[in-house]
Every structure is written in C-alpha cells, then in structure tokens.
Amino acid sequence: MIEGAIAGCSDTASRLSAGLHGGLECLAADPELAHRLLVAPFLAAPPARLEYEHQQERLAQVLGAALAGPDDSPPLAAGMAELLAAGVLSHLSGRVLAGEAGGLVESHELLLEFLLMSRPHAP
Questions:
Q1: HEC states along the chain?
Q2: Which of 8, 19, 35, 44 is the most exposed place for a label (fewest CB within 10 A)?
Q3: What are phi and psi of 51, to 5 degrees?
Q4: Shortest CA distance to 38 belongs to which of 81, 82, 101?
Q5: Per-residue pLDDT of the chain in tens (123 residues, 90 and over written 9)
Q6: Neighbour count for residue 37 (Cβ, 10 Å)
C-alpha cells in the first residue's frame, strides 16, 4: 500500500508525505489493527514489547533513509531517526489509546512537519 502511494513522487518531501498518508490511512481503516500495533504491546508480556521495539527500529531505518536526502546532503544526526520514530509512534499510540484510531489521518500534517523539520540542511 505504502509503496504504491510513493510511486511517482519525485522529491523527498512528497515521498514522505505520500508514505505517511498511506500508513495513516491503513491504520485508520482498521482501528483494531492500530490498537494491536500501537497499544497492546505495552500491555503484554515482554516478547510483544520486544516486537514493538523491532518495529520501532525498522521505522527508524525507513525514516533515516527517507530523510537523508541526496548523497550530497548532510546525514541525519546520530540517533535522530530513532528519536523521530519514537515520537511518531508515541503520538499515534496516544491517539489510538484515546479512541481516535479512525482519525489518525488528521495527524498527517503535524507528523509531516515534525519529520521534515529534522532534515539536515547544507552548511
């Protein structure tokens, strides 16, 4: 779903926007899935929490690659992708816990701005 959303996007910001929107739509369309992914691991035994940590690491890898930009741009600061992933997941978990899973798409602009603000700028 997300791969299809970013197809044809030419720049980093539009790819990130399209991928984020696709992911939010997927979670909003299935609030039960959103709860299982974003809230249930905190209520479960350690193996489920470990799986959540792996998902967060994977999201950090994806965000780090997406935000790094072209080869001539500066890389993200060490640990920045992990902090971004934690921030995104924390925001989404809070909304799902508050019963707002169906409205996650409304967080698109906020999360996109949060992610884009972290992009390194050339000196």
A1: CHHHHHCCCCCHHHHHHHHHHHHHHHHHHCHHHHHHHHCHHHHCCHHHHHHHHHHHHHHHHHHHHHHHCCCCCCCCCCCHHHHHHHHHHHHHHHHHHCCCHHHHHHHHHHHHHHHHHCCCCCC
A2: 8
A3: -65, -40
A4: 101
A5: 555 555 566 777 888 898 899 999 999 999 999 999 999 988 888 887 888 899 999 999 988 888 876 656 677 788 999 999 999 999 999 999 999 999 999 999 999 999 998 877 655
A6: 18
